[in-house]
Design goal:
Elements (H helix, E strand, L loop, with lengths): L19 H4 L2 H9 L2 E5 L4 E3 L7 E7 L2 E6 L5 E7 L4 E2 L1 H6 L6 E4 L3 E7 H9 L2 H25 L4 H16 E3 L4 E3 L5 H8 L3 H13 L3 E4 L2 E4 L2 H8 L5
Antiparallel strand pairs: 1-8, 2-7, 3-6, 3-8, 4-5, 4-7, 9-10, 10-12, 11-12
Helix pairs in contact: 6-9, 7-8
Length: 238
């Protein structure tokens, strides 16, 4: 929050405040899970792939995934992080279209897979669940629209600082060294997410390393000085 104004990245970030399963009444949640079957995914495995036909939706029970899409500049952009209680693949299932993004397990994931026909039939017969899903979609779209508008006013440096602070808040683990991000993202994914080139992001991370703001290794980032990142977002650091 800057100057008393709340921004999209202050009140939601990549993670929905209330995941889909938590929105449902207990009996609806039990009934929905009952029409699927459990499935496990190892870390770094592709759960769903962009442009493939839709055949099912996934209800995530344990573990985190990343949702990415190939951006117009050719880089892989991080769109969202989905974890316990979330649903993925519902958009393609409802629109009967191909998948719009790739979902990858960041760690071992436990989920329930529901065939597309069973899922749509369940929604047709349960208005409460359908309304909750509509509410979730609306919340996600509102957050995306608001973020896109505010994102346009930031420099790439500020966008990268915002992204790092979001990940610190939602996926940060305090260590003796600093706050380690528990998800591994590549420079290419960071670049696509902030709308820049991988080379530009590499230069920005190098600068942050030299100033002891972050420490990095391959797919590993430790934030040492989140206060500096906050100043960058506020326009107070050069």
């Amino acid at each position: 929050m800057t100057g008393g104004q709340t921004h999209a990245w202050d009140d939601g970030g990549f993670d929905d405040k209330v995941p889909f399963l938590a929105r449902l009444e207990k009996e609806d949640r039990i009934a929905l899970l009952a029409i699927g079957r459990p499935l496990s995914y190892p870390a770094r495995s592709v759960v769903m792939r962009q442009n493939e036909p839709s055949t099912h939706v996934l209800l995530l029970l344990d573990g985190w995934t990343k949702v990415t899409v190939i951006a117009v500049n050719g880089y892989e952009a991080l769109l969202a992080l989905r974890g316990p209680g979330d649903i993925v693949g519902e958009g393609a299932a409802l629109s009967r279209s191909r998948r719009s993004a790739t979902v990858t397990a960041l760690e071992p994931v436990e989920a329930v897979v529901v065939e597309e026909s069973r899922f749509t039939a369940f929604l047709a017969g349960n208005a409460r669940v359908a309304l909750h899903l509509l509410s979730l979609a609306t919340d996600r779209q509102r957050s995306t629209d608001r973020r896109r508008l505010e994102w346009a006013a930031l420099t790439v440096r500020e966008r990268l600082a915002v992204l790092l602070l979001e990940l610190v808040r939602t996926h940060g683990k305090r260590t003796d060294e600093g706050i380690e991000l528990t998800i591994g993202l590549s420079q290419q994914e960071f670049a696509g997410s902030v709308g820049s080139s991988r080379e530009a992001v590499a230069r920005l991370l190098k600068d942050l390393r030299s100033r002891k703001v972050v420490a990095t290794e391959r797919r590993r980032i430790v934030v040492l000085r989140p206060d500096v990142l906050r100043r960058i977002v506020a326009g107070g650091a050069s």
